[in-house]
């Protein structure tokens, strides 16, 4: 599946359980974040925003928490690019994997409440 297809499926799942305000869906989720090639990790319950740029793609913004912050890690993901890679688990959790100069290899799992 392409990132756009995964984003659309995840958006449709989250949309059924949460209110859509204009072009934004806000929901709370458990965020599991591993970075620095797995040497560092954090888990927090944070607000997540899906910004719908069109019917097919958009961006994902994870709110800052105690350990997961925009200063330390990537908290905004664009679905229209091939990297990072988005995938869905069987329980409709979104998994984002990538590699960046700021934090090395990383994996984000977003588990909606």
Key structural traits:
single chain, PH-domain like, eight-stranded antiparallel β-sheet
Question: Would you kindly provide a written description of the structure presented here, covering whatever features stand out?
Answer:
Helices cover about 10% and strands about 50% of the residues. It is mainly beta and about 110 residues long. It has one domain (about 5-110): Roll (PH-domain like). Strands 1, 2, 3, 4, 5, 6, 7 and 8 form an 8-stranded antiparallel sheet that branches. The protein is globular. The protein starts with a helix and ends with a strand. The mean pLDDT is about 90.
Whole-number tally of structural domains: 1
What is the beta-strand fraction? Answer: over 45%
Please give the oligomerization state of what you see. Answer: single chain
**What is the CATH class?**
Mainly Beta
- Give me the CATH architecture, please: Roll
Q: Which structural class do you get from the secondary structure elements? A: mainly beta
- Cα distance spanning the termini: 24 Å
Shape: globular
Q: Report Rg.
A: 13 Å
Secondary structure blueprint with pairings:
Blueprint: H1 3-15, E1 20-21, E2 24-35, E3 40-52, E4 58-62, E5 76-78, E6 85-88, E7 94-100, E8 104-112
Question: How would you summarize what this structure contains?
Answer:
The protein is mainly beta.
């Amino acid at each position: 599946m392409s990132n756009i297809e995964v984003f659309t499926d995840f958006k449709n799942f989250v949309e059924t359980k949460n209110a859509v305000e204009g072009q934004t869906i806000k929901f709370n989720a458990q965020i599991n974040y591993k970075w620095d090639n797995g040497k560092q990790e954090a888990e927090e319950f944070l607000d997540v925003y899906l910004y719908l740029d069109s019917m097919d793609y958009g961006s994902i913004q994870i709110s800052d928490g105690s350990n997961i912050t925009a200063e330390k890690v990537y908290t905004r993901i664009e679905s229209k690019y091939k990297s990072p890679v988005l995938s869905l688990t069987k329980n409709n959790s979104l998994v984002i994997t990538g590699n960046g100069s700021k934090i090395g290899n990383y994996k984000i799992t977003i588990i909606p409440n």
